[in-house]
UniProtKB/TrEMBL annotation:
Record EC number: 2.4.2.22
Pathway: Purine metabolism; XMP biosynthesis via salvage pathway; XMP from xanthine: step 1/1
Localization of this protein: Cytoplasm
Quaternary structure and interacting proteins, as annotated: Homodimer.
Stated family: Belongs to the purine/pyrimidine phosphoribosyltransferase family. Xpt subfamily.
Protein name per Swiss-Prot or TrEMBL: Xanthine phosphoribosyltransferase
Recorded coiled-coil stretches: none
GO molecular function: xanthine phosphoribosyltransferase activity
Function: Converts the preformed base xanthine, a product of nucleic acid breakdown, to xanthosine 5'-monophosphate (XMP), so it can be reused for RNA or DNA synthesis.
Positions with a binding annotation for xanthine: 20, 27, 156
GO terms under cellular component: cytoplasm
Domain of life of the source: Bacteria
InterPro entries: PRTase-like, PRTase_dom, Pur/Pyrimidine_PRTase, Xanthine_PRibTrfase
Length: 190
Protein backbone atom coordinates (compact mmCIF):
# COMPACT_ATOMS: atom_id res chain seq x y z
CA UNK A 1 0.00 0.00 0.00
CA UNK A 2 1.81 3.05 -1.35
CA UNK A 3 0.04 5.61 0.85
CA UNK A 4 0.86 3.70 4.02
CA UNK A 5 4.42 3.02 2.96
CA UNK A 6 5.00 6.74 2.30
CA UNK A 7 3.56 7.63 5.71
CA UNK A 8 5.96 5.18 7.36
CA UNK A 9 8.90 6.63 5.40
CA UNK A 10 8.02 10.27 6.06
CA UNK A 11 6.60 10.13 9.57
CA UNK A 12 7.81 6.93 11.25
CA UNK A 13 10.35 7.33 14.06
CA UNK A 14 12.54 4.40 15.10
CA UNK A 15 12.84 4.05 18.88
CA UNK A 16 14.93 1.82 21.13
CA UNK A 17 13.94 -1.83 21.31
CA UNK A 18 12.87 -2.21 17.67
CA UNK A 19 9.79 -0.04 18.19
CA UNK A 20 8.48 2.08 15.35
CA UNK A 21 6.59 5.16 16.50
CA UNK A 22 3.80 6.18 14.17
CA UNK A 23 1.80 8.41 16.44
CA UNK A 24 1.15 11.04 13.77
CA UNK A 25 -1.17 8.79 11.73
CA UNK A 26 -1.97 5.55 13.59
CA UNK A 27 -1.23 5.44 17.33
CA UNK A 28 -2.28 8.86 18.63
CA UNK A 29 -3.32 11.25 15.87
CA UNK A 30 -5.12 9.17 13.25
CA UNK A 31 -5.36 9.83 9.53
CA UNK A 32 -8.94 9.10 8.46
CA UNK A 33 -8.15 9.05 4.72
CA UNK A 34 -5.47 6.45 5.33
CA UNK A 35 -7.80 4.47 7.63
CA UNK A 36 -10.43 4.40 4.89
CA UNK A 37 -7.87 3.07 2.40
CA UNK A 38 -6.75 0.46 4.92
CA UNK A 39 -10.36 -0.68 5.36
CA UNK A 40 -10.75 -1.02 1.58
CA UNK A 41 -7.49 -2.89 1.20
CA UNK A 42 -8.28 -5.46 3.89
CA UNK A 43 -11.75 -5.89 2.42
CA UNK A 44 -10.31 -6.57 -1.03
CA UNK A 45 -7.76 -9.00 0.32
CA UNK A 46 -10.27 -10.98 2.38
CA UNK A 47 -13.12 -10.88 -0.15
CA UNK A 48 -14.69 -14.31 -0.40
CA UNK A 49 -13.85 -15.29 3.18
CA UNK A 50 -17.47 -14.82 4.31
CA UNK A 51 -16.47 -12.79 7.32
CA UNK A 52 -19.19 -12.18 9.90
CA UNK A 53 -17.22 -10.23 12.55
CA UNK A 54 -14.06 -8.15 12.78
CA UNK A 55 -12.10 -8.51 16.03
CA UNK A 56 -9.36 -6.20 17.25
CA UNK A 57 -7.82 -5.02 20.52
CA UNK A 58 -8.08 -1.59 22.06
CA UNK A 59 -7.00 1.00 21.35
CA UNK A 60 -4.91 1.31 18.20
CA UNK A 61 -6.62 -1.54 16.38
CA UNK A 62 -9.99 0.16 16.58
CA UNK A 63 -9.52 2.65 13.73
CA UNK A 64 -8.33 0.17 11.07
CA UNK A 65 -10.79 -2.35 12.49
CA UNK A 66 -13.85 -0.14 12.24
CA UNK A 67 -13.03 0.98 8.69
CA UNK A 68 -12.66 -2.65 7.63
CA UNK A 69 -15.88 -3.62 9.38
CA UNK A 70 -17.66 -0.72 7.66
CA UNK A 71 -16.50 -1.90 4.21
CA UNK A 72 -17.41 -5.52 5.01
CA UNK A 73 -20.73 -4.44 6.53
CA UNK A 74 -20.22 -6.50 9.68
CA UNK A 75 -19.81 -5.54 13.36
CA UNK A 76 -16.45 -4.72 14.95
CA UNK A 77 -15.63 -6.11 18.39
CA UNK A 78 -12.65 -4.73 20.26
CA UNK A 79 -11.17 -6.85 23.02
CA UNK A 80 -10.74 -4.89 26.22
CA UNK A 81 -7.49 -4.83 28.10
CA UNK A 82 -9.08 -4.56 31.51
CA UNK A 83 -11.99 -6.39 32.98
CA UNK A 84 -14.72 -3.82 33.12
CA UNK A 85 -17.36 -3.77 35.82
CA UNK A 86 -20.01 -4.30 33.20
CA UNK A 87 -18.13 -7.31 31.79
CA UNK A 88 -18.03 -9.52 34.87
CA UNK A 89 -20.20 -12.47 34.05
CA UNK A 90 -20.02 -13.95 30.58
CA UNK A 91 -16.61 -13.18 29.16
CA UNK A 92 -13.86 -14.91 27.26
CA UNK A 93 -10.47 -14.11 28.85
CA UNK A 94 -6.99 -14.64 27.44
CA UNK A 95 -3.60 -13.29 28.45
CA UNK A 96 -1.25 -11.45 26.09
CA UNK A 97 2.20 -10.08 26.86
CA UNK A 98 2.38 -6.51 25.61
CA UNK A 99 5.41 -5.81 23.46
CA UNK A 100 5.43 -2.06 24.06
CA UNK A 101 4.28 -2.01 27.71
CA UNK A 102 6.32 -5.11 28.68
CA UNK A 103 3.64 -6.53 30.90
CA UNK A 104 0.95 -9.19 30.63
CA UNK A 105 -2.60 -8.05 30.10
CA UNK A 106 -5.81 -9.96 30.40
CA UNK A 107 -7.91 -9.27 27.35
CA UNK A 108 -11.63 -9.88 27.42
CA UNK A 109 -14.56 -10.19 25.02
CA UNK A 110 -18.17 -10.58 26.03
CA UNK A 111 -19.70 -13.93 25.08
CA UNK A 112 -22.69 -11.99 23.74
CA UNK A 113 -20.79 -10.86 20.68
CA UNK A 114 -19.14 -13.98 19.26
CA UNK A 115 -20.74 -17.32 18.53
CA UNK A 116 -20.09 -20.71 16.95
CA UNK A 117 -20.39 -20.31 13.19
CA UNK A 118 -18.85 -16.83 13.15
CA UNK A 119 -16.01 -16.28 10.69
CA UNK A 120 -13.80 -13.73 12.31
CA UNK A 121 -11.24 -11.41 10.74
CA UNK A 122 -8.60 -10.34 13.28
CA UNK A 123 -7.13 -6.87 12.68
CA UNK A 124 -4.28 -5.16 14.53
CA UNK A 125 -1.99 -2.19 14.03
CA UNK A 126 1.36 -3.97 14.50
CA UNK A 127 2.68 -7.51 14.49
CA UNK A 128 5.85 -8.25 16.49
CA UNK A 129 5.94 -11.52 18.45
CA UNK A 130 2.34 -12.40 17.71
CA UNK A 131 1.18 -12.28 21.33
CA UNK A 132 -1.84 -10.06 20.66
CA UNK A 133 -2.90 -11.92 17.49
CA UNK A 134 -2.59 -15.35 19.14
CA UNK A 135 -4.57 -14.19 22.19
CA UNK A 136 -7.32 -12.90 19.90
CA UNK A 137 -7.29 -16.17 17.94
CA UNK A 138 -7.65 -18.13 21.20
CA UNK A 139 -10.70 -16.04 22.08
CA UNK A 140 -12.22 -16.89 18.69
CA UNK A 141 -11.53 -20.57 19.40
CA UNK A 142 -13.09 -20.32 22.87
CA UNK A 143 -16.24 -19.03 21.18
CA UNK A 144 -16.29 -22.04 18.85
CA UNK A 145 -15.90 -19.62 15.93
CA UNK A 146 -13.33 -19.67 13.10
CA UNK A 147 -10.44 -17.33 12.35
CA UNK A 148 -11.02 -16.37 8.70
CA UNK A 149 -7.78 -14.39 8.55
CA UNK A 150 -5.45 -11.95 10.24
CA UNK A 151 -4.91 -8.44 8.83
CA UNK A 152 -1.98 -6.39 10.11
CA UNK A 153 -1.27 -2.77 9.22
CA UNK A 154 2.50 -2.88 9.93
CA UNK A 155 4.28 -6.23 10.17
CA UNK A 156 7.78 -6.29 11.62
CA UNK A 157 8.84 -9.34 9.63
CA UNK A 158 12.17 -9.63 11.44
CA UNK A 159 10.33 -10.57 14.63
CA UNK A 160 8.81 -14.04 15.10
CA UNK A 161 5.04 -13.33 14.97
CA UNK A 162 4.48 -13.57 11.21
CA UNK A 163 6.19 -16.95 10.90
CA UNK A 164 4.49 -18.33 14.00
CA UNK A 165 1.04 -17.34 12.71
CA UNK A 166 1.56 -18.71 9.21
CA UNK A 167 3.11 -21.91 10.60
CA UNK A 168 -0.08 -22.28 12.60
CA UNK A 169 -2.00 -22.18 9.32
CA UNK A 170 -3.54 -18.71 9.64
CA UNK A 171 -3.98 -16.60 6.56
CA UNK A 172 -1.92 -13.46 7.28
CA UNK A 173 -2.17 -10.28 5.21
CA UNK A 174 0.10 -7.39 6.16
CA UNK A 175 -0.16 -4.03 4.41
CA UNK A 176 3.50 -3.13 4.90
CA UNK A 177 6.28 -5.47 5.92
CA UNK A 178 9.38 -4.18 7.62
CA UNK A 179 12.60 -6.18 7.32
CA UNK A 180 14.57 -4.23 9.91
CA UNK A 181 14.92 -1.05 11.93
CA UNK A 182 18.71 -0.96 12.24
CA UNK A 183 20.51 2.39 12.61
CA UNK A 184 17.25 4.26 12.99
CA UNK A 185 16.24 3.42 9.41
CA UNK A 186 13.17 1.55 8.18
CA UNK A 187 14.06 -1.23 5.73
CA UNK A 188 11.05 -2.64 3.90
CA UNK A 189 10.75 -6.35 3.17
CA UNK A 190 9.14 -5.76 -0.23
P1 LIG B 1 2.88 -8.62 19.43
O1 LIG B 1 1.68 -8.88 20.27
O2 LIG B 1 2.77 -9.12 18.03
O3 LIG B 1 4.17 -9.01 20.10
O4 LIG B 1 2.97 -7.03 19.30
C1 LIG B 1 1.93 -6.35 18.67
C2 LIG B 1 1.30 -5.36 19.59
O5 LIG B 1 2.30 -4.59 20.27
C3 LIG B 1 0.45 -4.38 18.80
O6 LIG B 1 -0.88 -4.48 19.28
C4 LIG B 1 1.03 -3.02 19.08
O7 LIG B 1 0.16 -2.29 19.88
C5 LIG B 1 2.30 -3.25 19.85
N1 LIG B 1 3.53 -3.06 19.05
C6 LIG B 1 4.45 -4.00 18.75
N2 LIG B 1 5.48 -3.47 18.09
C7 LIG B 1 5.21 -2.17 17.93
C8 LIG B 1 5.92 -1.08 17.31
O8 LIG B 1 7.02 -1.20 16.75
N3 LIG B 1 5.31 0.14 17.35
C9 LIG B 1 4.12 0.34 17.95
N4 LIG B 1 3.61 1.58 17.93
N5 LIG B 1 3.41 -0.66 18.54
C10 LIG B 1 3.96 -1.91 18.55
Amino acid sequence: MELLRNKVINEGIVLEGNVLKVDSFLNHQMDPVLMKEIGREFTNRFAGEQITRVLTIESSGIAPGIMTALELNVPLIFARKQKSLTLTEDIYVETAYSYTKQQSNDITVSKKFMHPGDRVLIIDDFLANGEAAFALARIVQQAGAQVAGIGIVIEKSFQPGAKLLTDEGYRLESLVRIAGLADGQVQFAD
